[in-house]
Amino acid sequence: MSVALEFTDRGRGTPLLLIHGFPLDRSIWSAQVADLAGSTRVIAPDLRGFGSSPDDPPAASLEDYAADLLALMDSLKIDRFVPAGHSMGGYILFALHRLAPQRFAGAALVATKSAPESESGRKAREETAQRVLQEGVEFLAGSMPGRMLKSVDVLPRVRKVIASSGPTGVVPALRAMAGRPDSASQLASMKFPVAVIAGSHDALIPAAEAKAMAAALPSATLRMCETSGHLPMLEEPEVVTDALQSLMGSIR
Ligand code: MLT
After folding, report:
1. 18/29 Cα distance (integer angstroms)
2. Which residues of 45-67 are buried (b: 16+ CB within 10 A; e: fewer)?
3. Residue 196 DSSP SS3
C-alpha cells in the first residue's frame, strides 16, 4: 500500500522528480529546486519514513518507495517525467523503471550504482539496523557525514538532516537496500537521455560505477564533479544544476 508523500512542487514544464538518498530528505536538493524552477517543473518528495512523510506502513522493498512516487505522480496527473535519483534514490529509480518504464522521459543517476547488494553488505546493513533499533540514529549522524563528504563546509548541515531521521524510516530503508537486485541488465533498455553525475572523491560509491553505467546506457552524458564526494548536489551544487538543466534541455 502506498503512502501520500510530502513534497515540494515548483515551476512549470516537463517534471523533474528529485529522489533523495539515505538517510536524508528533500532538503538536500534545495539549491537545484531554487535554480531549476525558473525553467522546469521540479518536484522533490520526502521518501516514506523521511522528512515530513509518513512512516507507516514501513516500506518492505525498494518497489514500495517507487510505488509511493508513482502514486504521487498520479495524484498530480503527471504521466511522463524525469526521475533523478541520488544513491538510494538511484536504487529506487531502477525499481521505478522495473514498475513503469513507459513513464520515463529521461533520467538522472546521481552518485549511485546499478550493482546488487553484496553478501557482506547485507550483513553490515542488518548490523546497522539492529544498532539503530537499540541506540537510535545518533551514531549515524556522527559517523556518516565525514565519509560522505570531500569538503567539510556542508558537514554540519548533513549531520543535522541525518539526526532528524528516525528508526522507523532508517531501518526499513536499510533492509530495502540490502534486498536490492542487480539492475545492470536494465541499462540497455533505458533508451531515453540519462545524465550520470558522480563525485570524483566518492568514498561510498566509487566513481568507476558511474563510468560503467554511462558506458552501458544507450544515451548517457557523464558529468564528474571533481571536488565532490558522495553529495555533489551539496558540494558542487552549480555543476549538478547545470547537468540537470542540460538533461532537461535535451528532453524538451
Ligand atoms: C545513500 O547515500 O543513499 C546510501 O549511502 C547508499 C548506500 O548505502 O548504498
Report:
1. 7
2. bbbbbbbebebeebbebbbbbbb
3. strand
The grid coordinates of residue 172 equal 526499513
Atom 7 of ligand 1, nearest CA residue? 88
Expressed in angstroms and rounded, the spacing between residue 233 Cα and the centre of ligand 1 is: 14
Q: How far is the CA of 41 from the centre of ligand 1 (A)?
A: 26
Q: Give, using CA atoms, the residue closest to atom 4 of ligand 1.
A: 22
**Inter-axis angle of helices 88-99 and 167-178, nearest 10:** 60
Give per-residue pLDDT as tens, 29-88: 999 999 999 999 999 999 999 999 999 999 999 999 999 999 999 999 999 999 999 999
For the chain, the straight-line distance linking the first and the last C-alpha, in angstroms and rounded, comes to 33
Atom of ligand 1 nearest to the CA of 88: 3
pLDDT tens digit sequence for 87-109: 999 999 999 999 999 999 999 99
Ligand 1 atom closest to residue 231's alpha carbon, by position in its atom list: 2
CA 230/CA 191 separation, integer angstroms: 26
